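Entry for the shared binder. Reason: the reviewer on the internal report wants the predicted structure included alongside the sequence.
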Amino acid sequence: MTATVAKNYQPLTVETVKSVVEPLHYFDQVDQLEINEIGDGNLNYIFHLVEPATSKSLIVKQALPYAKVVGESWPLTLDRARIESESLKKAAELVPELVPQVLYTDHTLALTVMEDLSSHTILRKGLIAGKRYPKLAEHIGTYTAQTLFHTSDFFLHPFAKKELVKEFLNPELCKITEDLVLTDPFFDHETNEIPKVLHPIVKELWDDQELKREVAKLKFQFLTEAEALLHGDLHSGSIFVTEESTKVIDPEFAFVGPIGFDLGQFFANLLLNYLSQEATFRDEVDCPSYRTYLLDVIKDTWNHFTRQFRELWSSKGNDVFTKIDGSVELFLDKVWVDTIGFAGCEVIRRTIGLAQVEDLNSIQDLKIQYTIKQKALRLGTKLIKKHKQLDHPDLLLRLVQEGSK
């Protein structure tokens, strides 16, 4: 299989990226720009442009016709750059303060020019360092409530919703999620990365037929439930933060799917960091305190999300059934249990699948790292198998606290 590449597509270099930004007249002297290729992601080139005299700066992101993390043997559609830029623009109509500003897009070159977020920190790195972000829960709750409600059938006319589904068909990147999150970790697949010491617990996971049946249901939901326009990859590496600001980036996996998937990805990555604190904080006081903070972020994010979703349902719901008492609670109950199930899949994927997380893999003491990974696999399994019974945030938090002992 080969990716479809436009005739005039060329990968950018430090030299040629200047020609992209020059017509924007954003910089005073393009020839004086300091340009660095800073991409540490799996799929793209990312260039950081700074004009020293004025301190003006921009980011230029270009999709490659293959997965950078693997190489040309894994071709990928360049249409993901269009999907990413259009998703950011839609989010900017609703929550402009929570996404980077898009200044320019070129679908032929599969590139987007956007606001530089160098003043922010990648959330994952901040959490690993034990930083606290007092606005994080409110901001992610707002981002998810606003973007997901306004792209759902509860708000959109049916014709507009179906056009949205068509605009954001994203089969190749959805297939990555279907495989890497919802299939491969639960089987003996070559994409998995498993240290020998974990083979016994992983074999136990692969032999767990009840677990596989629940994952199969979640995967079927991912394949079939077109509830709202998702970010599709809302982990802690896709969020930039300061104490006062939050910016959600990288929605190239965006598609119309089950609402609980975005929240599940976010919660799962917080839970992985929660488990990692056993190694990060050796102080008996700091570790429990920071873990409490992380669980509070999960609970508060859900509370902000549901409060705003209810308000939007009441004030903007356009379907006749949104006027029925209790209908919003029934839907949010479904979203919650979906969230927990998808979170379990993400926890397991980020522990033994492709593209694991720095929270766990940066732990230098391998004995401690593997012990924490065992706890992560057990937690992920419980979240999946019990997701319909964990029907209240307090039940989730209690399970996490007991499982980390």
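Summary line for the report: The chain has two domains: 17-115, 121-403.
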